[in-house]
Write a structure and sequence with these properties.
Number of strands: 0
Structural class: mainly alpha
CATH superfamily: Formiminotetrahydrofolate cyclodeaminase monomer, up-and-down helical bundle
Helix content: over 70%
Order of helices and strands: HHHHHHHHHH
CATH topology: Four Helix Bundle (Hemerythrin (Met), subunit A)
Radius of gyration: 21 Å
Largest sheet: none
Length: 273
């Protein structure tokens, strides 16, 4: 496989030089270091820290006990999932979020913005729509970093109340609502990524299509993380109408945007093929 990639790289360089694209190749190699740095460093810091926390919970057995606790609940929430291994992954995802790692949703969405940004920069177009999309995507990437911090701050009062034996129900529900507001922002900003990509999908260079496709998949992953977390939060709320709305809102939004996501993935993967 390494030989195939080497042949493709060499063929691309020869083709570019033979068609007067030497400047574009130079610009690509000059910018690739900066793009890689912008993508890797923020993601690496967040991932390393939370993976360390998660490993402590795993080695202590705390994560395993929490998975057993939530398994009956989630098997009812997802009755169509009959594969035990698949349900196990869902349970683990929820437990990770409950441990304060809900930034996994923001992390997935930040990856989506970074991948989309990479797709646009690989294309290196001076088109006004492409330049505007690049600016929007950079703002979204930075905003997701901000949302990771905001989500962790919002969870602190909730965690404090959950540790109290006789926590006030009103305060507890208010804390759940605050946490929901932050993850709602993650959810709808993930949709914004795909909405920004969709109009410029046909203008992307072939080399940018795989990055754009990965961006859509990462955005969907972030949205699913929020959906699962809100389904769990809804079971802790006392007000039936708000609890139902909390659970159903992301499900309806995912269904309403299914055509957008599936259509864009099909277009991009057709370009890749």
């Amino acid at each position: 496989m390494n030989r195939v990639w080497l042949i493709c790289l060499c063929a691309g360089l020869i083709f570019a030089m033979g068609n007067g694209g030497t400047q574009a190749v130079n610009d690509l190699f000059m910018n690739i270091g900066k793009d890689t740095f912008d993508f890797v460093v923020p993601l690496l810091c967040v991932t390393c820290f939370w993976n360390g926390i998660l490993n402590v919970a795993k080695d202590s057995g705390l994560l395993r006990h929490a998975e057993r606790l939530f398994h009956p609940l989630l098997s009812r929430l997802f009755p169509d999932v009959r594969n035990p291994e698949a349900l196990g992954y869902i349970v683990t995802n929820v437990v990770v979020n409950m441990f304060g790692l809900g930034s996994a949703a923001a992390g997935s969405s930040m990856c989506a913005a970074s991948m989309a940004l990479r797709a646009i920069r690989v294309t290196a177009s001076e088109d006004a729509d492409m330049l505007h999309a690049e600016q929007d995507m950079e703002k979204l990437r930075v905003y997701f970093l901000h949302l990771i911090d905001e989500e962790n701050k919002a969870k602190k009062p909730l965690e404090k109340l959950l540790k109290q034996e006789n926590a006030d129900d009103t305060e507890l529900e208010a804390a759940y609502r605050t946490a929901c507001c932050i993850i709602d922002e993650i959810f709808y900003m993930s949709i914004r990524i795909v909405e920004t990509l969709e109009p410029i999908a046909d203008k992307l260079a072939p080399a940018g299509a795989p990055f754009a496709s990965a961006a859509v998949h990462f955005a969907r992953c972030g949205m699913d993380s929020v959906r699962i977390l809100k389904a769990v939060y809804s079971t802790k709320m006392n007000e039936p109408v708000f609890a139902h709305t909390t659970k159903r809102e992301p499900e309806i939004a995912i269904e309403n945007n299914k055509e957008l996501f599936d259509g864009l993935i099909a277009r991009l993967e057709s370009e890749i093929c």
